[in-house]
Design a protein that fits this description.
By secondary structure, the chain is mainly beta. The N and C termini lie close together (about 10 Å).
């Protein structure tokens, strides 16, 4: 459809199908009206029908229309009762095209004045056949009391309705014909649409432009928080995230960071057992940045570590025979399916007095929970009524270390779960069946599916290397006896300096070499380290097997780069401490995958009992080796200490790249450098806002960011549909052609 307006001196006629004027401003409603009454022909229909407010205009009868006499010319008038500052007149005619003589298709004239004797013509025209609603704009507004409409030839005249408006547009519209819509909060300029405060969800001078993605509120002055489906998806009116908050954020606007110990969308999940004094996990993923606290494992550090898993086991055999019916190790293999009852899933001792099963945890643990899995069928005699013995030594056959646990009745699912109100220190755990009531009857053999033992950790250590959890591969130049490299990261230290070789090799790694024995830790990936704590065999002396050591770092293994002169030297450990360890402060964050410890001077032996690594956060906006690189994040100034990656929503305006450390290239600006600017003399615009120096744009460009062509089509918002306006001027007329978008 094409709408056409024609401009005459002081008057604009607009043919349209919408009413954007203020409805309360029709000053002709129910005012006195009259018409030409000579030569009635078929009779008259009341002149007041044109000011009764009925715009249905159907059917064409005496209830909906006026009908004048046959005049030369016929006319119709209304007296507004007072002088009004009139800006628009709206006339409703017939819709049916039954006869050109009944308004459609014939010339007509509109005149106004303060009396019937002082009328002046403001419009003369010949509307297109089929148009039945006519807007007549008086610009500038004119003082009017009488409106006169008449045909320009001898005929009858019918009118459905006439509405006369003062100069105020209906609320929410402005400009010529009140065709332009705005969204102002409070008063605004009816000519330009300018208003100081926009309604929520709208912006710019005339409040015609919706908030950009990621903005909301009055004048779009607020920014979306961290929404679950992206930081540009909040409601433009109230800022609420329709899909809830993103991981790591909570609150009405999803701008409040999770409190310590919370994570996930809306901060509704709680952290597991992270290492160190701080229980805070990654607020987005729930992962613990420094690994799990001792005793816990899993992606979220919420799974207690079973300290019995894969540990040495024994069970009762006749005459202490080493041949087992079903292996005792089946109870610590981690398989809890417990089906079928066979030699792959269960242990089975011989008949005994009493029969028993035992596990050696390898070290003393603070036991807080024991879980025993038996048969799930109705055969219960092979575990029913068992007792649990705990001891720090391998002396278990006494009543002093039997736990007061209730093992009757046998649970339907075959699983016993004991939480000890007071943790017990123990290394050995034995399960025994009671003696039979009659001395003439042997006991049943003990049969187990799985035994899990968990410890209570008193205090935490934020060591990056969590024994049994963190993937670290140790290696050694050449080991002494059973003192292998894994002992340097198993969580144990040497308390007794007088220990024999057997105890030493349970607690420490001992490297041998011709001149410089070495121990290497492969951290599996580049890791940020700020401190190193080393536990040795000697206490406070400078001449022992754990003194005068040098620590190196590299991203290549020593087996591929044996020349340590090519490595980065982190520092020296001059003397050893077997209880508290000696800390090497790296002064700043260092990044490496391989850590190598070797003797500073020629030696043939080196003993390392434990190595612990600790993180060191860079200051805000920094990352990388020695925190020497900068990142530029949008909201949270902190970035990943290793990669520099920013948390959502990513880079600050003017920066791009994985680490948000690449400045926008020439001619680019804004978030992710996705916008272009065209400044005068090819000068650079501001990388965050796009503003050009002295606000001077290159030729052909405009707007503060110089990214809109000067002669681009302007987009106006029509009450019924968005349209593109093209303006064509001549000496005495202006024609505005309204073309629907896409046309």
């Amino acid at each position: 459809m094409e709408w056409v307006t024609r401009l005459f001196p002081g008057v604009l006629l607009i043919v349209s199908s919408t009413d954007s004027f203020r409805t309360a401003s029709n000053v002709a409603l129910n005012k006195p009206a009259w018409q030409y009454t000579k030569d009635p022909g078929a009779g008259f229909w009341s002149a007041s029908n044109a000011v009764d407010g009925d715009k249905t205009c159907s059917p064409v009868d005496s209830h909906h229309f006026t009908l004048s006499g046959c005049g030369n010319p016929p006319w119709w008038q209304v007296d507004l009762g007072a002088v009004y500052n009139i800006s628009r007149i709206k006339v409703y005619g017939r819709r049916d095209n039954v006869s050109r003589n009944y308004w459609q298709g014939t010339p007509f004239n509109v005149s106004v004045g303060n009396s019937s004797s002082s009328l002046r013509s403001i419009y003369t025209g010949n509307p297109n056949e089929g148009d039945y609603i006519y807007f007549i704009r008086i610009d500038p507004p004119d003082s009017v009391q009488i409106i006169d409409i008449r045909k320009m030839d001898r005929t009858y005249m019918t009118i459905c309705e006439v509405k006369v408006f003062d100069q105020v547009c209906r609320r929410g519209y402005f400009g010529y014909g009140c065709l332009h819509e705005n969204h102002c909060e409070g008063d605004y300029d009816m000519a330009t649409g300018h208003c100081p405060i926009c309604q929520k969800g709208w912006q710019k001078e005339a409040c015609q432009q919706p908030c950009a993605a990621g903005e909301f509120g009055s004048n779009c002055s607020s920014h979306c928080g961290y929404c679950h489906d992206g930081n540009t998806t909040c409601d433009s009116y109230n800022g609420h995230c329709q899909a809830g908050c993103a991981a790591g954020y909570k609150g009405e606007f999803c701008k409040t960071k999770c409190s310590p110990g919370e994570y996930g969308p809306g901060c509704t999940s709680h952290c597991g057992q992270c290492s160190g004094e701080n229980t805070t996990c990654n607020v987005h993923s729930g992962h613990c940045p420094s690994g799990c606290a001792p005793g816990y494992k899993g992606d979220f550090c919420s799974t207690p570590i079973n300290v019995a898993l894969s540990k040495p086991t024994l069970q009762y055999t006749v005459s202490n025979s080493k041949t087992e019916i079903w292996p005792s190790s089946n109870a610590v293999d981690g398989d809890k399916t417990c089906s079928p009852v066979d030699s792959s899933h269960f242990t089975l001792s011989e008949y005994g007095d009493p029969p028993w099963w035992q596990v050696d945890l390898g070290a003393v643990h603070n036991i807080s929970r024991i879980r025993v899995y038996g048969r799930k069928d109705n055969v219960t005699k092979q575990l029913e009524g068992f007792t649990v013995h705990l001891s720090t030594s391998n002396i278990l056959n006494n009543n002093g270390n039997i736990l007061p646990l209730t093992t009757l009745p046998y649970p339907a699912n075959g699983t016993f779960d004991f939480n000890l109100s007071t943790p017990i220190e123990a290394r050995f755990c034995r399960l025994s069946l009671p003696k039979p009531h009659s001395v003439d009857l042997p006991t049943y053999p003990i049969l187990l599916c799985e035994v899990e033992i968990f410890e209570l950790i008193q205090g935490r250590d934020n060591n990056i290397i969590i024994p049994g959890h963190t993937i670290v591969t140790p290696s050694i130049s050449s080991q002494y006896n059973a003192c292998d490299a894994s002992k340097s990261i198993d969580g144990s230290i040497l308390h007794d300096l007088s220990s024999d070789d057997f105890v030493l090799c349970q607690r420490c790694s001992v490297a041998l070499g011709v001149k410089h024995p070495w121990l290497q830790l492969d951290l599996s990936e580049v890791t940020a380290v700020g401190y190193i704590r080393l536990y040795g065999r000697d206490n406070g002396i400078r001449t022992g097997q754990s003194s005068n050591l040098t620590i190196f770092a590299n991203n290549i293994s020593i087996t591929d780069a044996a020349n340590l002169s090519d490595w980065t030297e982190l520092g020296d450990i001059i003397k050893s401490d077997n209880i508290n360890g000696v800390v090497l402060d790296l002064k700043s964050q260092r990044l490496f995958r391989y850590l190598t410890i070797t003797t500073k001077y020629a030696s043939t032996v080196m003993t390392i009992c434990e190595v612990k690594l600790y993180t060191r956060d860079c200051s805000d906006g920094h990352f990388g080796e020695k925190c020497s690189d900068q990142c530029h994040c949008k909201h949270d100034p902190r970035c990943n200490g290793v990669t520099g990656e920013c948390s959502p929503p990513g880079c600050a305006a003017g920066w791009t790249g994985e680490a948000c450390n690449i400045l926008c290239s020439p001619g680019k600006y804004g978030e992710n450098c996705k916008n272009r600017c065209y400044c005068y003399a090819n000068k650079e615009c501001k990388k965050d806002t796009g503003f050009c120096p002295n606000e001077r744009c290159a030729r052909g460009w405009q707007s503060p960011s110089c990214n809109i062509p000067e002669h681009s089509d302007k987009v106006a918002t029509e009450p019924a549909t968005a349209i593109v306006i093209r303006v064509m001027c001549s000496m005495d007329t202006v024609q505005m052609v309204y073309v629907p978008q896409g046309g």
